[in-house]
Structure formats: C-alpha cells, structure tokens
Amino acid sequence: MTQSGGAPLTGLRVAVTRSADRAGAMADALAAAGAEPVLVPVIDFEVGEQKVLGESLQRLAAGEYRWLVISSITTVRALKQWCEAAGTSLNTLIPAATSVATIGPTSVAVLAAEGIHAELAPVDLQSAAGLVALWPDFDAADGGSPRVLLPQSNLAEPTLVNGLTAKGWQPEIVTAYRTVDYPAQPELCLTATLEPKTPERGWISQVAQRPKKSYCPRGAFGSNAYPILTPAEAAGQIAAGAIDAVVLASGSAARRVAATMAPLPESCLVIAIGQPTRAEAQRLGMVVAATAEHPTPEGIVAALALAHTNFLTQ
C-alpha cells in the first residue's frame, strides 16, 4: 500500500461496489483525492410489484395516507419509473395534505430536484433508525389518518415498519423494487433517471445543508471513465495485492462481496458507507477499517483517508 503524497489517497486503488450508472460522484471524489477507482458492480435493481405499487400510488393520490416514506434514492427511481409508464409524475401524485419523509440530506436533495419537499429527515444518524428516532407519536386527537405508505426494497430491514408501528402508526409496505445480483434482467431493469437540477433551499431545521449527491443517473456517467471489473476479476486482483481498498455501498453489496470476493486480506481496507452496512459486513466476518460519518462521497473519502493513515502507522 503506497504512502500518500499531496492528495490523501494518492497511490490507492479502490474498488467501488456500484455499477457505472450509480458510482459517478463517489468515484470522482476518490479520484480527486488521488485514488484510482475501479468499479465492481455486485448488485442491481429490478422493478417490483408494479400492479400492487400502482394501486398504492392511486390510494396516495386519493389522500389515503398521512405520510409517504421514501427510504432510499433507489426508491425514488422506482416510483419515478412507474409514474413515467403511467403518464404522470410523483410530485403530481402526492396530495398537499400528505407529508414526505426520507433518511437524510442527500435524499432530500434528490427529492427536491424532482419537485418534492421532504418535511422530515435525520441529519446525524442518516438511516431508518435515525428517521424512527425523529418520528412523532401518532395522536388520534388531531383527527388525521395513521396510515403511512412505505415503498421499499424486497430486502428492506423491518426497522421502519417496527419503529412506526410502535409509535402508533399503520405503515403499509409495498415492494417498489427488487435488489438482485448484477446484472438485472434487461426487461425488468430499473432505468429511470433522476433530475440533476439544484434543489431548492429552505428545508426544515432537521435537515442539514445538503452534501453533493452520490447518485449518477443511468447513462450520464461514462462507462469508460473508470475500469469495470467482475467480482471474480476483483477477487483475483485483491488476492494479488492490486486493490488496496473496497468500498461497501450497502448491506446488499456487503453480502455479495462476502459471497464472491472473501476472504479479504488485512491489507485491503474495507470501508462501509454507514453503520448498517458496517454491521452487516462484520456479521459476515469482514474486518471494517472505517465507516463514513455521513453516507456521501466526502464521507467515504474521509473514512478511507483515516483508515489508510492508521494502516501506515501500525
């Protein structure tokens, strides 16, 4: 592992476990810090239960839900893809009386670019648990509905459902998309792209100043900008010492890395994008060198720089 020079990550070859359409800003941030990113797509996304999702969105438009919880950027894409097929838009479907919640400033920015204002989002703990901690108890005296629409992945943890239920709400789950091994089936692939516009300002105090988006719309990121490896190719290069670090961008990615690239040598630094991903990686037997304080490209760069410094001083 090379000693860093002027940039904090100079000399490091870093595997980013995202496909080219989603790795843009993270790979660019690593490159700007001196690293050499390589993309190792391990998971992809397919459309979910389209008929059931459509019925839920029709109920949303009819004002049957007090809250809509959008728990990931991928959920935004899945909802947008359904809306485009139906000849409508998500911001048109959401009634004024329905509030929107999400899991952090990055998602707030993505929603704002789509014309949707998120009223509730955690800042410090940007996760389902962080949102549950902020969520108000249901008060039947205010006359509102306790129903909450929760479109999500087929692999979503029950944290949101259990947390909202414990606070007196009635979350209704619908599978908006499916997380699958890369690549997705072409006829089912999630292909909707998100607006890159600068989002509006003036969010509530529970939402911090937004970081740069870590999402790059499908097709907007040049596939030749960085090398792309299969998991098998990445595993070979890791074993040969040609990859210095692996960025785990989700718990699903951690599971695929464990299945296709493990065991990882101690010299290959494992960086988790957040605490849930760290916990999953550790459950799978991986040694996590550092965890991003915030799930952003800047957070990943800072975590890797710290882990690299600690490795060199051991």
Structure characterization notes:
The protein contains eleven helices and ten strands. By secondary structure, it is α/β, with parallel strands linked by helices. The strands form two sheets. It has a five-stranded parallel β-sheet with strand order 2-1-8-9-10, sandwiched between helices. A five-stranded mixed β-sheet has the order 3-7-6-4-5. The two termini are 13 Å apart. The model is unreliable at 197-223 (pLDDT under 50).
Which helices and strands occur, and which strands form pairs?
Elements: E1 13-16, H1 24-32, E2 36-39, E3 43-47, H2 50-61, E4 67-70, H3 73-86, H4 90-93, E5 99-102, H5 105-113, H6 128-134, E6 147-153, H7 159-166, E7 170-181, H8 231-239, E8 245-248, H9 251-260, E9 269-272, H10 275-283, E10 288-291, H11 297-312
Parallel strand pairs: 1-2, 1-8, 4-5, 4-6, 6-7, 8-9, 9-10
Antiparallel strand pairs: 3-7
Helix pairs in contact: 1-11, 6-7, 9-10
List key phrases describing it.
314 residues; alpha/beta; 5-stranded parallel beta sheet; 5-stranded mixed beta sheet; 17% strand; globular
Q: Provide the residue-averaged pLDDT.
A: 90
User: Class by helix and strand content?
Assistant: alpha/beta
- Overall 3D shape: globular
β content, as a range? Answer: 15-25%
Helix content: 25-40%
Number of strands: 10
First and last CA, distance: 13 Å
Radius of gyration: 20 Å
Describe the strand arrangement of the main beta sheet, using strand numbers: 2-1-8-9-10
User: H/E element string?
Assistant: EHEEHEHHEHHEHEHEHEHEH
Please count the helical segments: 11
For the report, how would you describe the main beta sheet?
Answer: 5 strands, parallel
Q: Pick out the low-confidence regions.
A: 197-223
